[in-house]
């Protein structure tokens, strides 16, 4: 093992401690190798035994520091608590550092929060290819439903208006038929009048129905459209 | 060495070694100096330095050396107070132990 292999392995073993701690430790051992000099490199590596051993000591001491808080004016109790911390650490073995954030450290929650933000961004980026077409699909579906509903109501109105027009046309053609054929003319005029009245009534009814239904549909569409955006914003 | 070096004694030795250099000193040299007195493995010193730094007994700064940044350690005021406390404790402790070894009468 050479120096670069040693440092690389140490860095990978220190992945589960806060960034600040890792950088500091890496700088220390980098300096250490530099100051020892190239000819001492193998000796230093032998002395340090292995990256695992170095990493273990760094983590064990961080666990100890966590237990004791900062009481540098009481050497006896400090040592006791540190030993307790070390014992606890050795009992649990390779304890994950992230699970129990130290109470007195500031770098920990900060890096934790950054990690969370990065994770959320990554999640959004990963979900985007799914969410985007899904959202677009839902939007198109809503649009389609809206247009077809509008068409149905518009159709009703048009049908009613057409009945009115037919009624008027029949009445006029009845009037024209009065001269050659009285009976047919009256019959046509009667049917025309009935159709006109029915048509007007139907038109009024259809328009009123539209007045009630269309704003309701619009509100529904808006609500449906808003839902995927709300979900994505969370 | 037959005697164990406890964490407090190790802290005291490191503080003493660093305090001898007015301008501060660096990791490799601290290790060499400490190893003149006691037998510790090289990997033991870094956690001690880091802890003392967190306890605000040591401060660090980087200085250019040989075309690179070298990290220096310096004892703070708090560190000096702590060192004095350790020194007093040590004097008491070693005197008592010596008395047992050499006189044995008055403990």
UniProtKB/TrEMBL annotation, chain B:
Enumerate the Gene3D superfamilies for this protein: Winged helix-like DNA-binding domain superfamily/Winged helix DNA-binding domain (1.10.10.10)
Residues annotated as signal peptide: none
Which Pfam families does the UniProt entry name for this protein? PadR
Q: Which residues form the Transcription regulator PadR N-terminal domain?
A: 14-83
InterPro entries for this protein: Metal_resp_DNA-bind_regulator, Tscrpt_reg_PadR_N, WH-like_DNA-bd_sf, WH_DNA-bd_sf
Protein name, as recorded: PadR family transcriptional regulator
Q: Which domain of life is it from?
A: Bacteria
